[in-house]
Amino acid sequence: MSDYELLPESPLGGVEIELDGFNITEVTDKSLVMVALPREKFKDVESSIDKSCGLQLPEMECSTESKDSSITLWRLQKNQVLAYFTYEGNDAESHLSSRLSAPAYYTDQSDTWAMIRVSGNRSREVLERICPIDLSPEVFSVGSVSRTVMEHIGTIIFRDGDDSYVLLTMRSFGRSMLHAIEVSAENVL
Amino acid sequence: MIINHPLLGPRDSEEFVYLGSTDLINRPTNWEEEASAEDFYQYQYIRDNIAGDHQELWYHEQGDQSWLVVSRNTLTHEITKVELAQDVARTMGRGK
Fold first, then answer.
1. What is the distance in angstroms between the CA of the first residue and the CA of the last residue of chain B?
2. How far is CA A122 from CA A14, A63, A126, A149, A189, in A?
3. I want to staple A58 with a disulfide (CB 3.0 to 4.6 A). Which of A62, A138, A181, B75 is the partner?
4. End-to-end CA separation in angstroms for chain A
5. 8 A C-beta contact, residue A113 and residue A170
6. What is the pLDDT of residues A90-110, one digit of tens each?
7. Which chain A residues are closer than 8 Å to B64 by Cβ?
8. Does residue A69 sit in the same domain as residue A94?
9. How far, in Å, CA of A83 to CA of A34, rounded?
10. By CA distance, what is B96's nearest residue in A?
11. Are A109 and A18 in contact (CB under 8 A)?
């Protein structure tokens, strides 16, 4: 038998681009797990995640952080939250479920999304050309998260800092998204 | 066209998929009876072609995956009301 060795590769190969103080970087140290909340166990989930990690269930399109800041929850739908957390192993699902220890349904989605961080003091100007939702700081505050369409690509946008945004697209659209951001950056900068 | 989503605020209609009249919520429940054939025929195929205020179903596919009931004037495209289809169906005595 041949002795093959398979190496994991991130959707965009760890791309890092710097354009005049504007940075496009692939996020490779995070995992994503969908946490579906059973209707009759909402209260149980709320109290369990508070007890285990000091987490609250976020309001729609908002996020909450665990006490140690390692887990962020995004509320993009009424009955589920997406957990975005620092973890690079292959068992993100069991890792998260043991940390939250809440009676919910967990689905690992880490490898299905390409995650791109756009940062720099003109990042909002670059994004507002391709993003149909209002990104003005008073509406889309730090910690806001939204699911929308950019350049015909379904995208989740999360503001993780004053001048920093994380964009998530399905893995197969990663290159197209990267191209869209680069073109917008060239037009603006 | 901007749809003012009850949970998420104003969103571009590009994010949504249109289904049709809200009458589709009222699926006949008498499928075991002989008369159901006529009811299902009415439900499935017969549509009013309204020029004016129309209640219609929109699905927020590129968003939170919710179904909405949008009241829209088909002549002016003015949207007067947007509700969660879940809530509307409950007031009709359907769903949980």
1. 31
2. 22, 23, 7, 21, 8
3. A62
4. 54
5. yes
6. 899 999 999 999 999 999 999
7. 60, 76-78, 147
8. yes
9. 6
10. A39
11. no
Amino acid at B54: H
| Cα A72 from Cα A66, distance rounded (Å) | 6
Let me know if residue A5 belongs to a domain: no
Same domain assignment for residues A45 and A103: yes
CATH of domain B2-91: 3.30.2270.10
Contact list, B65 vs chain A (CB under 8 Å): 77
* Alpha-carbon span A160 to A49, nearest angstrom: 22
Residues, chain B: 96
Q: How far is B50 from chain A (nearest CA, A)?
A: 31
Residue A175 distance to chain B (closest CA, Å): 19
Q: What is the pLDDT of residues A119-156, one digit of tens each?
A: 999 999 999 999 999 999 999 999 999 999 999 999 99
Is A148 close to B15, i.e. CB distance below 8 A? yes
Which residues of chain B have a CB within 8 Å of the CB of A61? 7-8
